[in-house]
Design goal:
alpha/beta, binds pyridoxal-5'-phosphate, 2 domains, Aspartate Aminotransferase, domain 2, about 450 residues, Aspartate Aminotransferase, domain 1, 5-stranded antiparallel beta sheet, 7-stranded mixed beta sheet
Length: about 450
């Protein structure tokens, strides 16, 4: 496999530009210079086909939590593939059972786990569960609860429903109209919109907006609220104290299900096994992907608390079951890898390590606050953002060309970092650092 991919670099570059459609990038420049072709990964480093090694400060796409080159994940995949490569979850298999059991044990509550293959699908699944749950529990005569409320800057995926919940204009333009019934409210983005208010006052204002939106829409039409505990790709927005508790209380008062999108936050990234554990507020459903297998296999999970699941229980032949299936959702191989990945996270204490190294890296990055273009440095664990501005007083964002120059300079220094999607030109620009949780002090210094 590796040998056949290694004929001649120039041929590969030509084959690439002739045949491969890359994500999120303009292709015309590739006729001059094909994109970097990565070949190997070990720990926090990836090496390209020319032998140049890069420090991966963004864990692939925020997913390689345990780092690259884990032989035991390859071994467990191999063993499972030989034993039983595939079985659908209309029936059952041992790695699927064990992983579902493990996730519930980590979360500390009773419920059920539905497996899919991507973060987008995990969220789509949650939206469909929310609608069906309400359809099956509603009082006779009431209308459908179908709306979903998310926050601006939140990203929830690329499929039509998940994209409808996503509230980043640039990602949606040209694909609209999307799915009806998805509404957005402001996120608690204190650096830009806190306007000097105390955390408590600002928190109350954000919650009031959510509650008023529900009121204006009619709570009886709203199925769910979805939030990333810490907004990730939207610019690393950490909620103020009391925010998640407030959202929970509003959902409880209005009969709306609360969904956490922990596709990025989960599995140690923020310094706890799960992001919401910083605030001790439980959702009704929680969606995982990325760090669930550290990107070694495509797997996601929608975890539903038992009272929600109860609404789907019925007599044989009745139609209250969840009519939803994904061919590759929760295959034996993917779930076996997920299980071993969690074992590594626990055995090596990687969530705790993320907390410690995150504090260290945050401290080092805060040294940059003296720089005229660094407006804010924020985050939790190893999910960190640096908001770049042209002018600190007005907080005018650094223009896109400036962001690109920073990213290029990092690349020139063999360091890969991320950035938020710039949804509205001139609105906000945040560099994102989220290295594998095995990052060392020296690597953090280099970053
Ligand atoms: N939710 C969040 C918070 C994400 O960051 C992403 C992807 O980056 C998704 C959902 C979608 O996940 P996927 O790309 O696996 O569909």
């Amino acid at each position: 496999m590796v040998a056949s991919l290694n004929p001649n670099r120039t041929d590969l570059g030509k084959m690439d530009t002739e045949s491969l459609w890359h994500a999120m990038v303009q292709h015309r420049p590739f006729s001059e210079k094909p994109p970097k072709c990565m070949k190997r990964g070990v720990g926090c480093h990836v090496t390209d086909a020319e032998g140049v090694e890069y420090l991966d400060g963004v864990s692939g796409l925020w997913c390689v939590n345990v780092g690259y080159g884990r032989q035991e994940l390859a071994d467990v995949a191999y063993e499972q593939m030989v034993e039983l490569a595939y079985s659908p979850l209309t029936m059952s298999h041992e790695p699927g059972i064990r992983l579902a059991h493990k996730l519930l044990a980590l979360l500390g509550y009773e419920g059920k786990v539905f497996f899919s293959t991507s973060g987008s699908e995990a969220n789509e699944t949650a939206f469909k569960i929310a609608r069906q749950y309400h359809a099956q529990t509603a009082a006779a005569g009431s209308g459908p609860r179908y709306k979903v409320i998310s926050r601006y800057r939140g990203y929830h995926g690329h499929t039509m429903g998940a994209l409808s919940a996503t509230a980043q204009a640039e990602r949606k333009l040209k694909y609209e109209p999307l799915v009806p019934g998805f509404l957005h409210v402001s996120p608690p983005y204190a650096y830009r919109f806190g306007e000097g208010r105390s955390e408590a006052v600002y928190n109350a204002a954000c919650l009031r907006e959510l509650e008023q939106t529900i009121l204006y829409e009619g709570a009886e039409s709203v199925a769910a609220v979805i939030v990333e505990p810490i907004i990730s790709g939207g610019g690393v927005i950490v909620p103020p104290e009391g925010y998640l508790r407030g959202v929970r209380e509003i959902c409880d008062r209005t009969g709306i299900l609360l969904i956490y999108d922990e596709v990025v936050n989960g599995f140690g990234r923020t310094g706890r096994m799960f992001g919401h554990q910083h605030w001790g507020v439980q959702p009704d459903m929680i969606c995982f992907a990325k760090g669930l297998t550290s990107g070694y296999m495509p797997l996601s999970a929608t975890v539903v608390k038992q009272p929600v699941f109860e609404a789907f229980m019925g007599e044989p032949g009745s139609d209250s079951h969840f009519r939803h299936i994904s061919t590759y959702g929760g295959t034996p191989v993917c779930t076996a890898v997920g299980l071993r990945n969690i074992e590594i996270l626990e055995r090596e204490g990687l969530p705790e390590r993320a907390a410690e190294m995150g504090d260290y890296l945050l401290g080092r990055l805060q040294e940059l606050l003296d720089h005229p273009n660094v407006g804010d440095v924020r985050g939790k664990g190893l999910l960190l953002g640096i908001e770049l501005v042209k002018d600190k007083e007005s907080k005018t964002p650094l223009e896109d060309a400036g962001m690109k120059a920073v990213l290029k300079q990092c690349m020139d220094h063999q360091v890969i970092i991320g950035r938020n999607t710039n949804t509205i030109p001139g609105f906000t620009n945040v560099l994102i650092l989220c290295p594998p949780l095995v990052v060392t002090r020296e690597q953090a210094d280099h970053l």
